[in-house]
Amino acid sequence: MPGGINTGQITSGELLIGQRIAFDAVTLVAYAGAHVEHHALLAADPANPVVGTSVGLKGLFEIHWRALQSFVATASLSASTVNRSYMTRTALVHEFQPAFRAGIEAAAFGDVRYSELRAGVLIRTRLTAAELTLAAGMLSNSDKGSGAYTTFSLYAPF
Fold this sequence. Notes:
Strand content: over 45%
Oligomer: single chain
Number of strands: 9
């Protein structure tokens, strides 16, 4: 909707298989598989190319490198044929204690309709069975321009 605000719902699912290879200070991860995504808009928007259900292929690659005793560098890249979506992220984190880390991050993601760049700082703490991360920084995107972002994530392997 040109100049207007539209609301909608996105449902996404992936089934990926892959391999993890660990060396001394480096771990490589690669996955590939199927990706399905459904975009439902409240009001029809003929100018929006991202609508309805799309099925395609997705690939993902990650590298984790313990650069020094207390620094970890990570990079990830994923790409999908569904709406030509992509996501890249890199971070450099200092491990102050085994349960507390802080660092910097940068990311770029988007699809056929949208793109965003981010740069910021993060703190991460390990809980008993999970890892909690809080990040904040500046962003620039194709919808609203520049501004701030915050993210909160909880990672709990099962």
